[in-house]
Request: fold
Amino acid sequence: MRRSNDRHAARTAWFVVAGLVAFMLVLAGCGGGGSSSGGGEGLQKLGKGEGELNLISWAGYVEPEWVKPFEQETGCKVNNKIGNTSDEMVNLMKTGQYDGVSASGNATARLWAAHEVAPVNVSLVPNYKTVFADLKNQVYNTFEGQPYGIPHGRGANLLMWNKNDVSPAPSSWEITLDPKVAAKYSGHITQYDDPMSIAEGALYLMNHEPSLGIEDPYELDEEQFDAAVELMKEQKPNVGEYWSSAEQQIEGFANGSNQVGTTWQYQYFALKAENEPMEASPASEGFLPEEGATGGRIPG
Reply:
């Protein structure tokens, strides 16, 4: 992020990165000790568990096949609430009713700045050493030298389509972002309903309008930001659904109202499991369109 006195400071400084997710913890829950209000210092040792853990997670992150063995082994009851967007997760954490959240990168800094989360003493997490090194100590999970979550991976925003409705198979985001191309599927394009979609537009412009000089879709000057916002406005007439819930989008593809658009791996594999005719572009390249994808891109 840039200093606030930079005349061309990034309008998207709060974006950071969406794809890297960390479980950020306050001081209460099965780990024991501390206050449910968040903030403060990390635990120095594990105390007696409180017997219950209230979590907020993305869909698919806290599944019964993982939770039940944990509950049986620890005696700690897990209550989970699905959060559909980063905004929703931040607002839920601010209620003080939750012990942890699978916060994406664009939420972690907001939670830290609001004193809603506590630092994590990674020495109390035996398998922290097995976490991929490049996920640790990043600007979106570590503040003032203290980690505020346990990172576990990155996820890209995919381009997905129903192969029975969309032909030829697309390999570019132009099918949703170029108004002339997108018009063919007007009313059947689905787009994630989140400000992070601006970065998706910036990525497209980085590849198709090099004169803008975009080097990172998460670090934009005023001109670049305005161009990305304008592109997303141009897309709007062709969008049939702005989705915020994974289940909402799954239903849209299953009933045929959605034909092509931005999605996550969760929806793609859920639909494939139900034998829906979904494809993502291209599988040989990790499901990424030719311009790449947002979500898993880490700013330097």
User: Anything to note?
Assistant: Residues 122 and 128 are 6 Å apart (CA to CA). The longest strand covers residues 52-57.
